[in-house]
Amino acid sequence: MSPELMRGQQYDIKSDIWAIGCVLYELLSLRRSFDASNPLKLVWEIVQKEIDTDSLDAMYSSEMKSLVRQLLSKDPEKRPTAVELLRHLVTEATNETMEKKVWSLNASSRKARIASSTATETIPVVTSKTSEVYYWGGGRLTPYKLEIFKKGNAALQVAAGNLHFAAVTVEKELFTWANVQGGQALVGQLGHGDTACYKNPKKVESLQNVRAVSCGEEFTACVTDDGELYTFGSDYYGCLGCDNAEGDEVTEPILVELFSSKPVEQVSCGESHIVALTKDKEVYSWGCGEFGRLGLGSEDDHSLPQKVHICGNKTICSVCAGFDGTFFVTTDGKVLACGSNENNKLGFNTVTKGLKKRQVKESYDIPCKDIPAIVKPLNRYHIMSVSTGKDHSAVIDDTGRLITFGLNKHGQLGVGDCKPRSGVNKISGVLSSKQVLRAACGDGFTVIATKDNQIYSFGNVESGRLGIPVDPSLTHRKKMAVPTPKPIFGSLHFVSDVSCRHWHCIVIVEKVLKSKTIRSPHQDSFTSSRGSQLSEPSQDDSVFTSESYISDNADSEGAVTCNEDEQDVLAITGSSDTNSRKGDDSMPPWLAEELENAEFIPLESESDSPPDPINPSVINQPPHDLQHLDCPTHNPAVAPPVAMLSTSHDQRSLDASSISVGFATSQVTHGIPFSVPPLCLDGLSGSGDSIRLQMIRDRERDEELEALNQRVIHLEAENKKVRKYTCFNHLLPGNPVSSTMGFYTEPGCLKWDKRAGP
Fold this sequence. Notes:
- The chain has 15 helices and 35 strands.
- It is of the alpha+beta class.
- It folds into three domains: 3-87, Orthogonal Bundle (Transferase(Phosphotransferase), domain 1); 126-509, Regulator of chromosome condensation 1/beta-lactamase-inhibitor protein II (Methylamine Dehydrogenase, Chain H, 7 Propeller), CATH 2.130.10.30; 579-741, no CATH class.
């Protein structure tokens, strides 16, 4: 512990320099730097006592003693930095030696990393997946699938408003529709040129190349690929950014002129205001200014975009507009906010806890902020994303932890109860071992998606907001609330986007149906050369249907996608050097050598009786010369030809004709169920058939290897029979072995004589 830490100061890198000085002093003096009989005295010595470097052995140079003195200086500013330490006269001469030593010590681990990184390369070949859009709430208790968003019209991003929805497809088209209850009227927020209520998704014909969309209470904003911002719907609070030039109701998209020269990167719509982030990382806001939600230092309304000044020269990477507040996330993981902090939904409130046994908590409430201010209770987290609802908010840090704060009347904070919470809450329990990827907050409920492809919801059950049918008698304290995260779907699905507003929720879910990979080893291997893997997930057991689409483009993970009828024939070939070794990999050396040295011994019968007539030359052949037996080759039915190996174009291949004829003959003669089909590769050529050609070659290579394995089994069986007949021949009359073992023979028989002895 350094002196500054003992004084209660903040940890600094100079404390590590102090630790180096303590270790160096102990190495030089062979005694402790600070030694005391009790902790209090030890602290006093660290803070007050000066190290006597003159007491070090005279064998050490003055430069070494001076270095120790600098490292153990009580003032952190007087200690050298790590760079200065390496450039010191004492260490500079040994830097090269130390680097070489460290390099040699790390050799084993470095080789292991290189071997693991280059041993196998996995290339995705075919990936088919579903992409579907579901929404629930507003009286719909369970998720409802929108059939229009499938196949080539899959959705990439969705947004929910109070009465309407919007979705951007892979074709960069914008679709909008409404879910009106109780005869509420629309004001043009669908952008179709009228105020009609379209309950099914309808394309906005006047917009093209849409990249992102966001929905407010009665208006919609979208961003194109060029960074242009379009708005439509109600302009009551000036949310359309056109200074009310088009009237209070705009039924078709209009361009916000300011952003023609300032391309927009992200747009977020609150209940009655809009916040936009440009590609230059500038923030603009406009609309209703109540409670200071615009971050402009006042509560005035603005019908034109106004630049928001961020304190501390922070760089904003994302924005989130809520019911009556706004969040700003910086590049270093800090969160700023402005607007209403009612129920601590912005997270500003700090809590002071009592000590010892008495639980004393005191909360300091902050009603609102009219300029962006840092949310200090979140400073200990590195925040990646923010979502806010009407009375509560949720953030996700870089480790996937979910932190919630705000009103907990319906259990929307996910803490397991409906009790009021003063500060920020890190959610554990069901989510303790999970990483949260996305979160969305609505009016009294929260929906999250985890890394293990699960979707959870918690909070107010009313009107189907959670997407699960819940018995009111089983809810927390007989209220319409679920205070702990509950899964929505029964099977695993990846959530690419989710949005909640009011009592609605809409999600885009994806599920991989089939993924095939080829592993291409860098070293020749008989087993790994056939290492293609095909994985298929379990059947879908949730509300999701089996209908799927297969994208013609690469997905977000870089996988190659194609049509279902092409999955069995598509493959990705390896590098040229890998292809050049396929001939060597097709047959191992031990099998080639054994086939070259193999001989066939003709057998006319598979019974255990000796062959008739008996060839005397064979009978008198000694056991160790059996490998030189001369087999008659004039009868092809008795001795099928051996598959000969030939070399062509530096690759080892099989003579297909000899294999086919020989194995077919062997099958007829001995009843062996195997054959090798002839190679049929002449008709496939050209770049268009290269993938199919590779698949056929792999399949034929596997068939050849299987046939060769069957042939080896057949040879081993024949050799076993030869050994039996050889034993029989040694026991025939005149053979000294028969008399020694107690056998006597008669013509055509072999019997055991119990009277005979050794």
